[in-house]
Each structure stands twice: as structure tokens, then as C-alpha cells.
Amino acid sequence: MITISSIKADIGGFVGHSAMHPDILAVGQEELEKAKQRGLLIDYHVSYCGDDLFLIMTHDHGEDNEEVHKLAWDTFITGTEVAKKLKLYGAGQDLLADAFSGNIKGAGPGSAEMEIEERPSEPIIVFMGDKTSAGAFNLPLYKMFADAFNTPGLVIAEPLHGGFAFEIQDVKEHTQITLNAPEEVYDMLVFIGAPNRYAVKRVFNRLNGEIAAVSSTDKLSLIAGRYVGKDDPTMVVRCQGSFPAVGEVIEPFSTPFIVEGWMRGSHHGPLMPVSLKDAHPARFDGPPRLVALGFQLANGKLIGPRDMFDDPSYDDARAKANEIGSFLRLHGPFEPHRLPLEEMEYTTMPAVAAKLADRWQATVEKSSDGAVAAATAEVE
Ligand code: F6R
Ligand code: MG
Ligand code: MG
């Protein structure tokens, strides 16, 4: 069995929250190379999207392995030291725990891991997002694994025709449920259509029970109880054979659908599929971006990557993302560009409300005969 672990964190931005400094990438490279030399890892690939560092690792220690998680944690700590020396922005921002305590989950970084029996040929795609959040993959996962208009294989390919099972997490209540597509999609959409609360964690092929996809669902603000940066997500998807084809896996991103994130993690914006060379948010700290790295596994070795969105067939999606972004920007501080109050990562509401508390008056309504009715509300 081979485990693929994609573990990521923002440990300092260059410049501001826009990109990754090469010295931070070099730390990732150096630390994971040492781990490969001492036999902990079979292989690794270090990459980035915006200000987030992604450690893509293969090994045979299973999911939630303490040594592998500690390697990721220690790498982020060493990277943070370099970030502090360079005074990069927000050095160590996602490392919320004081010390490593056995598992990276709940400590700040995001993780997506799957243990698989490597097939004779095992194409996988690792997705890396910035300026968006856990739950951003609900819509594309639904399209990949439950929508025949996206994935004709669901209709015309025998190994996919039995449908897929979706493991969905309630990220606030810390509960989970598994629902089956196609027969339970209407029930499923009640939940996953609200990605701020419900996030698809895993997807399985129902005919053979094999895992097809896993995404990070870590919510930084829920871990810390306050805003600490966005939980820019990662996801691993297996392709071909009993899974959607590579082209079916990346097809949902031809629509730059709207996600939460962007400026100050408090806005709706289009998710723009980009190549690594464009994985640097700029306008209004965005728009939210997504990179897709394709690999062939060969006995755990990561053959690749191929930069999947580095292709003119995604130019339209990028152009549309710019158009949607410009239109949303016209709304300035108004919803639906700005997130609803309870979902904003930054807010001055408590302070402003306290300052103005005395100035709120009970509303006074005039009835149709002109008489002034009693105040309709008690004002504290
Ligand atoms: C969003 C993000 C940025 C920052 C913004 C303000 O996920 O990282 O948009 O929120 O640049 O950053 P601070 O509050 O650090 O000045
Ligand atoms: Mg940052
Ligand atoms: Mg980020």
C-alpha cells in the first residue's frame, strides 16, 4: 500500500500575502530530501500556490502517521525561521499549536491523505488553492463524481456506472455522513450546497469501494476561534479506469465558479484555474486561484508534475474569472461581494456596534390614520 499525503501551510508571504519566497521552497526541498534519504518518504514534491507551501509526499506508513506529520510540522517550523529572518509577511501564520502533539490535524496546517493499492498505472492530480477555503471543492467534486454532463463516464463507462459515495463533514459539529450518488443527490445537495458548513472529505467508487478523492477540510478560524488566515485547501484525485478521466477531473474548473475567500478572506470571488507561473494572487489579493499538478505514480515515485491548467483550453475560464471578478468588485463593501456578517473573517462589527449602542432608537411606525403607534422594539 502507498500513502499520498498533501500537507500545506502558509508560513509567510512574499510580498504581503501574494506569493512564496524561493528560500521557503528551498527549505521544503531540503527537509523532504533528507527524509527521503533516511527512508521515511518514498518520494516528494514541494510546490506552492500563492503564499502557501504544499508538501506532496508518498510513503508506506499510512494516513495520520506521526512521523510523517512531524516531518511536515518540523519543515514548516524551519521554514518559519527563514521567513522570520527575511521578515516575510505573516511568518508562521498557520502554525497555531505551540508544539507538535502527534498529528498535524487541528494544529493549523491543512492535510489530505489517501492510502491506496497502486494500480498498474496510477494517474493522480493534486490540487492546490489560495485565497479560498475548505468546501471550495464541493461543487467540482459533485460535478466530477455525480454529474453526467461533466463526466460522461458515469453514463457510458461500466466501472463508473455504479456511482460514487460522498463522505461529507459538518465542519462545525465535527460529524460526518456518507451519501450515495446518484440516488441520494438531492439529499446530498441540501448539505454540500452550503460549503461554509459542509465539506466533502472523501469520495469512493461504490462498485469496488476504492477511494477516489480526498480533500483538506481544516478550518483555521474554527480551530483558533478567531481569524488567522484562510484555510487554503488541497485535494488529491485519482483518475482513469474506475475513476473519472483526467479531462473529466479538470473539466469542472472550466467554469470559474464563485468561492469564499479573496480579500481578507471576507469576499466572494471566482476561482481562477492557473498554471504555476500565474499562481500569484494580485488584484484585490486575488482572485482566488487553483493549480492542478498531475503525476503518474510508479511504485510510489511521483513521476511529474504536469502543470494541468497550463493550457489554452483554460484561457476562457481565466478571462471569465476576470470578468466576474470585475463585476463583483463593483459591489464594493456590499453583499453578495462581501460575505454575510457571520461568515466574514474580519469584522469591526462588535466595536462599531458598541460605539453606536446608545444611538439606536426604537422604530416608531405611523398607522394608516396617521396615529403614531408605540415603539415596535425594545432597545437595550
Ligand atoms: C486573504 C489574505 C489577504 C489578507 C489581506 C490583509 O486570505 O490572505 O487578503 O487578509 O492582505 O492582511 P493583513 O490583515 O495581514 O494585513
Ligand atoms: Mg498569508
Ligand atoms: Mg494563502
Question: What would a concise description of this structure say?
Answer:
The protein has 380 residues and is of the alpha+beta class. It has nine helices and 15 strands. The relative contact order is 0.14.
Shape, per Cα inertia axes = globular
Please give the domain count: 1
Distance between the termini: 62 Å
Beta strand count: 15
Helix/strand/pairing category: alpha+beta
- The parts where pLDDT drops under 50 for at least 5 residues are none
What percentage of residues falls in helices of 4 or more residues?
10-25%
Major sheet details: 9 strands, mixed
Number of helices: 9
What does this entry look like structurally?
The chain is α+β, with helices and mostly antiparallel strands and 380 residues long. The protein has one domain (2-341). The protein is 24% helix and 26% strand. It has helices spanning 22-37, 66-85, 138-146, 153-156, 185-192, 220-224, 246-250, 315-329, 349-356; strands at 2-9, 43-49, 52-59, 110-116, 122-130, 164-170, 175-181, 198-205, 211-215, 234-238, 258-261, 267-270, 272-273, 289-298, 301-307. The strands form 3 sheets. Strands 5, 6, 7, 8, 9, 10, 13, 14 and 15 form a 9-stranded mixed beta sheet that branches. A 4-stranded antiparallel beta sheet has the order 2-3-1-4, covered by helices on one side. Strands 11-12 form a two-stranded antiparallel ribbon. Strand 14 and strand 15 (301-307) form a beta hairpin. Helix 1 packs antiparallel against helix 2. The radius of gyration is 22 Å and the shape is globular. It starts with a strand and ends in a 24-residue tail after the last helix. 46% of the residues are buried. Bound molecules: fructose -6-phosphate and magnesium ion (2 copies).
